[in-house]
Amino acid sequence: MTYQNIILEHAEPGIYVLTVNRPKALNALNAATLAELADATARVAEDPAARVLLVTGAGDKAFVAGADISAMQPMSTLEARAFSEQGSRVMSGIEALPIPVIALVNGYALGGGCELAMACDWIIAAEQAVFGQPEVNLGIPPGFGGTQRLARLLGRARAMELVITGRQMKADEALRSGLANHVVPGGQLMEKGLEMARLIAAKAPVAVRVLKQAVQRGLDLDLASGCVLETSLFALAFGTADRKEGMTAFLEKRSPKFEGK
Ligand code: CAA
């Protein structure tokens, strides 16, 4: 598939950068853009050498300003349902990638944009980033998982207030409320993302994958079942050559050289 609305770059070994690229519409998500996102997600998933995916928006104004309102405006109920299902599938696909996915939120992350950022494993925001679920102002709820992921990330009361008032939340509030992990000056966003991606790419790949699984899957389990899952994943990672290398390197007081085996 050739992309018209996104850019997928292999920025450095193991590090992919996916940019939503419709700056004239503030990177709004229409069906074609969602289809391209699904394709790009599959391509990254199929690359065994992939270590980290960074997701961002083109231009200096928006990460993604939401689902495309001009595309939605004439939709029938059934078409809207299919659009919501498509968007939800794309968000779940990004969330399910076996490698860490970091959102670099460079501007407005509203509606479907906030949902895209929340489908990533964590968020680094530029100082000018703005988050929110303003769908209520259009007479609809979020449709790409926003009510569900926001409540899980911020808790019931904060999420309820945000979706019902539709108000915008600036980067400093996103940081305080735990939605964003870091806030950096806009000009430093990509560098900060790449810096973190390089750090992750240098870790033992199997350990990173099992860590993502342990935290993600464990959150859906009770504590005892989550600890059983952790033990299985611990044993799985223990069987890797990288585990031997990591422990031997520690004992030999040198840096480990991980190979993903
Ligand atoms: N869909 C389609 N086009 C959009 C868009 C969107 N979500 N957001 C912005 N645009 C377009 C505008 O229509 C405008 O196009 P034209 O130049 O052709 O008129 C262009 O992008 C620039 O936008 P503005 O002139 O509005 O820029 P601004 O700086 O004045 O305002 C903004 C920026 C506050 C982000 C404002 O654009 C805005 O409120 N956008 C809509 C945000 C929104 O409601 N998002 C939720 C969408 S619904 C959704 O996402 C549902 C879901 O979960 C599935």
What secondary-structure arrangement, pairings included, does this model have?
Blueprint: E1 6-12, E2 15-20, H1 31-46, E3 52-57, E4 62-64, H2 69-72, H3 77-95, E5 101-105, E6 108-110, H4 112-119, E7 122-126, E8 130-132, H5 146-154, H6 156-165, E9 169-170, H7 171-176, E10 182-184, H8 189-201, H9 205-218, H10 223-238, H11 241-251
Helix pairs in contact: 1-3, 3-4, 4-5, 5-6, 9-10
Bound molecules: acetoacetyl-coenzyme A.
The number of domains: 2
**Which fold does the CATH topology of the largest domain refer to?**
2-enoyl-CoA Hydratase, Chain A, domain 1
Number of helices: 11
At the first level of CATH, what is the class of the largest domain?
Alpha Beta
- The unreliable regions are none
Say which CATH homologous superfamily of the largest domain is assigned.
2-enoyl-CoA Hydratase, Chain A, domain 1
Strand content: 15-25%
| E-strand count | 10
Q: What ligands does this structure carry?
A: acetoacetyl-coenzyme A
Q: What is the ordering of alpha helices and beta strands?
A: EEHEEHHEEHEEHHEHEHHHH
Cα distance spanning the termini: 31 Å
- Widest beta sheet: strand line-up: 1-2-3-5-7-10
Describe the structure.
With 261 residues, the protein is an alpha/beta fold. The chain has two domains: 6-201, 2-enoyl-CoA Hydratase, Chain A, domain 1 (Alpha-Beta Complex), CATH 3.90.226.10; 205-251, Lyase 2-enoyl-coa Hydratase, Chain  A, domain 2. The protein is 48% helix and 16% strand. It has helices spanning 31-46, 69-72, 77-95, 112-119, 146-154, 156-165, 171-176, 189-201, 205-218, 223-238, 241-251, and strands at residues 6-12, 15-20, 52-57, 62-64, 101-105, 108-110, 122-126, 130-132, 169-170, 182-184. The strands form two sheets. Strands 1-2-3-5-7-10 form a six-stranded mixed beta sheet, sandwiched between helices. It has a four-stranded mixed beta sheet with strand order 4-6-8-9. The chain is globular, with a radius of gyration of 19 Å. The mean pLDDT is 98. Bound molecules: acetoacetyl-coenzyme A. Residues 25-26, 28, 65-70, 87, 108, 110-112, 115, 134-135, 138, 142-144, 146 line the site of acetoacetyl-coenzyme A.
